[in-house]
Amino acid sequence: MQTNILGYPRIGSNRELKKANEAYWAGKISLEKLQLTARQLRRQNWETLHNAGIDLIPSNDFSYYDQILDMCVMTGTIPARFKALKESLVTPSSPELYFAMARGYQKNGFDATAMEMTKWFDTNYHYLVPEFDASQKYQLLYNKCLDEFKEALSLGIQTKPVLIGPVSFILSGKIKEEGLQTAGLLDKLLPVYIQLLQSLQQAGATWVQLDEPTLVLDQTPEHQELFHYAYTQIREAVPALKILLATYFGGLQDNTSLAIQLPVDALHIDLVRAPEQLDDILAAFPENLQLSVGVVNGRNIWKNNYEQSLQLIHKAIAALGKDRVMIATSCSLLHTPYDLDLETDETVLTPQIKNWMAFAKQKVHEVIALKDIIAGNDTLLKDNQATMLERSTAAIIHKPAVKARLAALTAADAQRKSTFPARQKAQEEILKLPLFPTTTIGSFPQTEDIRKLRADFKKGVINREEYEKDIRKAIQDSVQLQENLRIDVLVHGEFERNDMVEYFGEQLEGFVFTKNGWVQSYGSRCVKPPVIYGDVQRSAPMTVEWSSYAQSLTNKPMKGMLTGPVTILQWSFVRDDQPRSETTLQIALAIRDEVVDLEKAGIRVIQVDEPAIREGLPLREADWQTYLDWAVKAFRISVSGVEDATQIHTHMCYSEFNDIISNIAAMDADVITIETSRSQMELLEVFSTFRYPYEIGPGVYDIHSPRVPTVEEMTVLLEKATQLLPARNIWVNPDCGLKTRKWPETEQALRNMVAAARNMRVAITATA
Ligand code: GLN
Ligand code: ZN
């Protein structure tokens, strides 16, 4: 029986690649130094896997920035706007071109914007979206894949090169050439793939892994046909190369018969996300095919439950025999942190919780352990069973009070006292806001001073008293400024928050943080998600003091600012011993307690941010509604404990929700603020067909840029909005929080924004 790892993290156990990339971009280290770091990281990874005894060790899973970008450069998928730059360079594989495509390029007379970035399936990893345009000639510009295969070979390690498969490569991109169809594009790209694969075959590669994760998505018959076509051609061209077709992040479902009939040597399936697919697949599995069973989860940080994995592996062995089964991780380990052994601070991660966890390096050993257990090593299994048993009953995880509260939830808990029209009236009476009320989304510029203040407090350089004094000062200044600018609904500025999820996670029971649990988000950017290990509960108010203090400084309404349950879930590593929906409802109850306490403290407007609701959508449309139902319910539970006159806001950083608009409405928030300025309010189109009854603040200026928008352009945007929405329901606000901006531009932009709102009020009274 063989063991198989689909991919390994590449940033380095101490984020060496991040640091080297950033130093190189800043001109602080040479290209040679960067390349040396990269070689060392590749070598470390290969040796880790080799020494652990893994049979199929990935190569070409390394990337300076992103593996899809690598494929673009390898195949000549260079967007037209980089053509001149490319031609000015000596080698097409030049890092100058590569990083220009990733990050944009504005020097030496060139000016090209970066390629678009988007989330890789339902992960928090962002890839660069390939752009297929008419200027491109697809050809093997350089062969990174072969270079890295040979590099490993020179170290005495035979690897399995990993590539994004041709169909998923195309489907993950955008065709920008008029008249070009997917099939035509495949015809152009296949020769490049074939040339690449032939070079690997020639260099002595035995296995190659082609990732086709789009096989777990809903596919049209035309797209299904593309797989047949591509793999038939590939098979003919490289008859001696063994092809492992990798699917992950979901089940094959209606693509099962397609996938198992493709002329490849092994099929990899994700049995963590979709264990139920195993029976169907085995029932129809062809004679000559091997099966790689992905049982060790590449998406979380928990120890594998060997007993559960063994059941699946044994089932596969019973049907196919040991020789045809590989034990594998569910997907690439790119989405997990490097090495749990580096977590040595017991005050951060207690030994008890640490013993439930496994990072990438530990997961590799789990794959080996499963093989060893099948070979008869009982101790490994017994130890694992003991850990699982201890975890399943641990008092720090299982809190009867939380479970009882969840069990006692009724429909009334997800329901405000009155319907929106009555609430709107009650809120108008108490808040007395003008038409086109102005507000901001929550955070104000996070200056160097503010960051240092938080860091100093965390390190113990200053005490709580000093820290709070300075935060209060920042709040005072921001309230003063908002008063001067005559903003209608004020915010305190979120100066005390490092991150909108971490801030709450640090105060809630059931969360733990790691010191070094970094995962790549995009390029050199890494995130360290909180870990939800147990039942969630709020032991004390989290924001009430800051919000009340801010409210005490002004007669205008001060908006309380919270992060919603779905977003907290979505941006954390989530426990795997209960459904996500249940964890979300627990968080919802904790947020509900906070909302109620804010109201008690005299806060009349409360915003619960849910920027991650849309990205939580399941990969298959058939599963959407179930998710949306519990996500919406969780939001409603978190905000429904208040009186009619308390105004509930929510915020999302996008407004592409045409397909889920009825669910957005079902959230029943009194006010929603969304991002719309970059699309020039085009995204509001949906409101021409869907009657959205609530108040809404379509962002009038883009906070991603330091540019100060003029009064006129914001007025124009608001006029557009009045054509689609009743004036009574329109709010005036920026697209998102202002934490990444600087104060001078923020002040000027807000001044203009308030002036635009005034213009609108005058215009409305004139017509009335
Ligand atoms: N209230 C948050 C802020 O202003 C919202 C951030 C977000 O939407 N991602 O920073
Ligand atoms: Zn936002």
Architecture blueprint of SSEs:
Layout: E1 2-4, H1 16-25, H2 31-52, E2 58-59, H3 67-75, H4 83-88, H5 95-103, E3 117-119, E4 126-128, E5 131-132, H6 144-154, E6 160-164, H7 166-171, E7 174-175, H8 182-202, E8 207-211, H9 221-237, E9 242-246, H10 256-261, E10 266-270, H11 277-283, E11 290-296, H12 306-320, E12 325-329, H13 351-354, H14 360-374, H15 378-393, H16 400-407, H17 420-431, H18 448-459, H19 464-485, H20 502-505, E13 508-512, E14 519-522, E15 525-527, E16 531-538, H21 544-552, E17 559-563, H22 565-570, H23 580-600, E18 605-609, H24 624-639, E19 647-652, H25 661-666, E20 671-674, H26 686-689, E21 695-698, H27 711-724, H28 743-767
Parallel strand pairs: 1-12, 2-6, 5-7, 6-8, 8-9, 9-10, 10-11, 11-12, 17-18, 18-19, 19-20, 20-21
Antiparallel strand pairs: 3-4, 13-16, 14-15
Helix pairs in contact: 1-2, 8-9, 14-15, 18-19, 23-24, 27-28
Give the mean pLDDT: 96
CATH topology of the largest domain: TIM Barrel
For the secondary structure, the number of strands is: 21
Helix content: 40-55%
Q: Class of the largest domain, according to the CATH hierarchy?
A: Alpha Beta
**Cα Rg:** 27 Å
Query: What's the number of domains?
Result: 2
Strand arrangement in the largest pleated sheet: 1-12-11-10-9-8-6-2
Structural class: alpha/beta
> Which word captures the global form?
globular
- How many helical elements? 28
Please give the CATH architecture of the largest domain: Alpha-Beta Barrel
Largest sheet: 8 strands, parallel
Segments where pLDDT lies below 50 for 5+ residues? none
- Percent of residues in β-strands: 5-15%
Bound molecules: glutamine, zinc ion
End-to-end CA span? 79 Å
